Amino acid sequence: MIVDYHMHTARCGHADGSVEDMVEAAIDKGLRQVGIADHAPMLYADVPMLAMSPDELPSYVDEVLQAKEKYRGRIEVRLGIEADYHAPTQGERVSMIELYPFDYVIGSVHVLGDWIFDNPADVGRYEDIDLDDFYVEYIHTVREMAESGFYNIVGHPDLVKKFDKRAAINLIPRYRELLEAVKRAGMCYEVNTAGLRWPAREIYPEPAFVHLAAEIGVPVTFGSDAHCPEDVARDFDQALALVRGAGYREVATFQGRIMSCVPLPEGQPPDEHGHDDQGGDE
Ligand SMILES: [Zn+2]
Ligand SMILES: [Zn+2]
Predict the structure, then answer these.
(1) Has this prediction a pTM greater than 0.90?
(2) Residue 193 C-alpha to ligand 2 middle, in angstroms?
(3) Average pLDDT estimate for 14-28
């Protein structure tokens, strides 16, 4: 089996499609299980173009739970959410998310200091920083996210490469520390195909990370980070080839925040449609 555990809906302000549109796209792609994981309220900023507001969270949950019932027998729908890790607002975030019966929480670092570094509107700030230091700070923050013990899945583990601004230093020792923390936390990470649609032109995370994670024994799951129905399960042939090539034979799935690993498909992954790049962030 293969799953797509990372997709957004119009509720986040920069995606097209309802929960049902995304689930139906997943059915069309031949998936048997799918997870919606829209952007949780940010709490550190109020930007309607980047995430739902706190008062929209209950209706988001209701909409996904209704889809779970509606599509029962055709596809299993999981209730997920993509939540930032942002230390100053973390208590508020945990209290907010724990109110609902999520199947999994994707932990993503999109903000460092006051910079939402994956927002295309703020890409100019890459000119003012030391990329090596920035990568080290990012990886350290992702490790803090894992050590917080709240999350299930590391979202797009090397999102810092999104605009193809690359560090020069060897990141492998940092990845190893991060992955050991992810393993201790009982989490998995996602292979996220959205990196192919941005200047990085590479799946998140890079192949070296996937191979190291396989060696350390950290489970993996899959996400398209689709912001429109056309991108559901997009480029999963490449994701599956990467994961299999690293030696994985199973995919991590979640129900009620509990992980279970199931065998990857032996045959071909779901079909692909070519599609133009989408704007917006991840
Ligand atoms: Zn994201
Ligand atoms: Zn997004």
Answers:
(1) yes
(2) 13
(3) 97
